[in-house]
Amino acid sequence: MEEEAFWIKQVLAGNKQAYGHIINKYKNPLYATILRMTKNPQDAQDLVQEAFIKIYNQLGKYDQKGAFSSWLYRVAVNHCMDEFRKKSSQIKQAEINEASAVNTKHPEVILLKKEKNRQVEKLISTLPEDERIIILLRYANELPYEEIAETTGMPLSMVRNKLHRAKKKMRETVKKQGGYYNELSNGG
């Protein structure tokens, strides 16, 4: 701890070479920690380098109340989490951009939609009549549960139960047979 305090004072006094001692002491354990977070050696190396730059820039904020290693890891892990959030946000934005770039009038897209609708209709047709009616009223006509209960003459709780059972049957059929309906088999 005294050694670290000495090197920190040296760095803060302007001796940039003194920071090399801190890097040498912590680069391997920090890399191991970040590698466990990323599971990618190249990303871990990049993040370790970025973390050491951030630590250097924030060294003056270390208050020397707790262990330096704890403070160093906290700065590094927070940096990694920030980068993960940024990357996640960028991926979502790319998916949105990609989805909006699809030409909905393209013959292939129209064909896939028709095939998907045909398979959904086939899936619904396998349900018992009461469940089929509830599914159609809820999703094709977009009726609220109360109106479905009123229309069918069933209690509201029965409508909810039958709808739940119908969706569950459809998911199970999709899981067995496959098809386009990942959203159904994933609980959508």
From TrEMBL:
Keyword Lipoprotein (UniProt): no
GO molecular function terms listed in the Swiss-Prot or TrEMBL record: DNA binding; sigma factor activity
Pfam family, any one: Sigma70_r4_2
Coiled-coil residues: none
Keyword set, alphabetical order: DNA-binding, Sigma factor, Transcription, Transcription regulation
InterPro entries (alphabetical): RNA_pol_sigma-70-like, RNA_pol_sigma-70_dom, RNA_pol_sigma70_ECF_CS, RNA_pol_sigma70_r2, RNA_pol_sigma70_r4_t2, RNA_pol_sigma_r2, RNA_pol_sigma_r3/r4-like, WH-like_DNA-bd_sf
GO biological process: DNA-templated transcription initiation; response to stress
Superkingdom, natural source: Bacteria
Domain RNA polymerase sigma factor 70 region 4 type: 118-170
Domain RNA polymerase sigma-70 region, first and last residues per copy: 23-88
Membership in a protein family: Belongs to the sigma-70 factor family. ECF subfamily.
Protein known as: RNA polymerase sigma factor
Species assigned in the record: Bacillus infantis NRRL B-14911
